[in-house]
Amino acid sequence: MLADRTTTASAPTEWPAAYPQGYAVVDVETTGLARDDRIISAAVYRLDARGEVEDHWYTLVNPERDPGPVWIHGLTSEVLEGAPLFREVAEEFAARLAGRVLVAHNAVFDWQMIAREYARAECEPPVKQRLCTIALSKELRLPLPNHKLESLAAHFGVVQRQAHHALDDARVLAEAFRPSLRAAAAGGVRLPLHECRPLTEWNDRPMSRIGQQAGGPGGTGYGGGGYGGHRSGGWRPSRKRPACPYPNPGRYEDGKRLKQGMRVAFSGDTSIDRELLEDRATEAGLHVATSLSRLTSLLVTNDPDSGTSKVVKARQFGTPVVDEAAFGQLLRDVEPADE
Q: How far apart are CA 38 and CA 44, in angstroms?
């Protein structure tokens, strides 16, 4: 049950016309956090325009590989072996998402995992936009000690029964999202919606098949890192790249060529797997930057109005911005660095 919060207890009579007509609150449990990891369970709570629950759905998924940190999610090889493959539940999953905004806690992680599974299944997910409840809690300036789901739940008096179980995590998030949505509507807050782009190019590294189960924190899967073993700024594991051997020649100028040594940053979803795109930039002699500064030569984003920190800084610094398609064209003819 939700605690009595005077600011969020009742829905405002005047509802913002620009708000979405429905939401799909999603949680996925996975074998790990890397690009080659797989979904092992998924849950969806469908909500109406004002956040009221319409129905819910849950499934296990056979990841066809090691299940990862069993000590966290509790799903063993034996449990998952008889579960359906993702391609066998893809249509039902899509029906639950269709026409709705995907809502998740750290939504970029859930979305990227879902997008990759649909790419493997050679079909397109029906999700056009996502909303991250971490971003929404920041917009609402909720007095949370951190951005963990349990902190958001505790703020609204929602009781967690089984952490890291997809169905219970989705329930908890749905119950915490409802008062958050009402508070946003009452305050006229613009919802932090982001575009979801399906993957058109991606790759996986070969992994062990299901049955070769991680035995504990020292085994395969997360390598003892658990769900915390990833970069704080994103869902992907840290990846060390070789230093760019060329000096930074300055900013990119519209109509001219990119030049080896230029610092390039990326923001938001890309149709080509982000790491593939970054690899191609590195191979062309560009410096792939994880953050944006006054030294950044170019920002690549498909959503220049997203309001992400990189986009905001690019505006402040006057950093040139191009979309993914334009960047792909520029990569074909990168000017060599000065000798």
A: 17
Q: Is the Cβ–Cβ distance between 153 and 160 less than 8 Å?
A: yes
Is residue 298 within 8 A of residue 262, CB to CB? The reply is yes
Q: What angle do CA 169, 175, 180 make, to 5 degrees?
A: 115
For residues 90-123, one letter each, b for 16 or more C-beta atoms within 10 angstroms of the residue's C-beta and e for the rest, the string is beebbebbeebbbbbbbbbbbbbbbbbbbbbbee
| Residue 286 buriedness (CB in 10 A; 0-12 / 13-18 / 19+) | buried
| C-alpha dihedral, 197 to 277 to 321 to 254, nearest 10° | -130
- What distance in Å separates the CA atoms of residue 136 and residue 191, rounded to the nearest whole number? 7
Q: Which two tokens stand for residue 200?
A: 């058109």
Model pTM score:
0.79
Phi then psi dihedrals of residue 147, to 5 deg:
-105, 25
In the chain (339 residues long), the average pLDDT of successive 10-residue segments reads 42 87 97 89 98 98 94 94 96 97 95 94 93 95 95 96 95 98 96 92 62 40 34 45 91 96 95 91 95 96 89 95 96 92
How far apart, in whole angstroms, are the C-alpha atoms of residue 198 and residue 189? 28
Selection from 25, 81, 95 nearest residue 213 by Cα: 81
- Residue 118: phi, psi to the nearest 5? -70, -35
The span from the CA of 199 to the CA of 271, in Å, is 5
Question: Can you tell me whether residue 244 is helix, strand or coil?
Answer: coil
For the chain, list the strands marked E by DSSP. Answer: 22-30, 39-48, 53-60, 101-104, 129-132, 193-195, 263-267, 287-289, 298-301, 321-322
Structure tokens at 251: 């900013």
**Contact status, residue 272 vs residue 322, Cβ threshold 8 Å:** no
